[in-house]
Amino acid sequence: MDWSNTILIVGALGELKVYKVEESQREINNQIKTYYHPVLVTDLDFIDAHKKLKDIVTDEAGRFGHNISEEHELENERKERIIKDAAKVIKMVVEKLKPKNIMLSYTKEYIKKLEDELDSSIKNKIKKTVPADLIKTPKDKLLEHFE
């Protein structure tokens, strides 16, 4: 696979990492071999995603008779906002780095929603999508998931 001018975007609800794939060469047995490895460019943590709804809604006294459906709607709205924020960050990174190819991985549950939020110009550059949370995957193992 040609990894030149490629970025990897891995994320989960609440965190996003962007890696630029860089090329290096080594001489082995009088032959020059080309290797590709990801280099971290951006690591963002969307703090709101890690908070519990009860920590965000500050009126505990008023929650005594709260409606469960209201709480569920608030939780869904928070997730939607986080996904939109992730899409905005991806757009900014793509505009700055101007990659030829994008490899995208995001939590299986939310990857479709994230893709729906992305501009068509970004979608056209996505060469592979992996519906998985690869946030904690060591960077030397990341490329294996996109081959």
Concise summary:
This protein is of the alpha/beta class. Helices cover 36% and strands 33% of the residues.
Q: How many helix segments?
A: 5
- Coarse shape: elongated
Total count of domains: 1
- The tally of beta strands, per DSSP, is 5
Query: CATH topology, anyone?
Result: Nucleotidyltransferase, domain 5
Distance between the termini: 7 Å
Detail the poorly predicted runs.
49-62
Taking the sheet with the most strands, its summary is: 5 strands, mixed
Task: Specify the structural class.
Answer: alpha/beta
Level-2 CATH architecture: 2-Layer Sandwich
Question: Mean pLDDT across all residues, rounded?
Answer: 84
Q: SSE string, helix = H, strand = E?
A: EEEHHEHHEH
Q: What strand line-up does the widest sheet have?
A: 3-2-1-4-5
Describe it:
This protein is 36% helix and 33% strand. It has 147 residues and is of the alpha/beta class. It has one domain (6-146): Nucleotidyltransferase, domain 5 (2-Layer Sandwich), CATH 3.30.420. A five-stranded mixed β-sheet has the order 3-2-1-4-5, with helices on both faces. The longest helix has 30 residues, at 68-97. It is elongated, with a radius of gyration of 19 Å. The relative contact order is 0.21. Mean pLDDT is 84; it is low at 49-62.
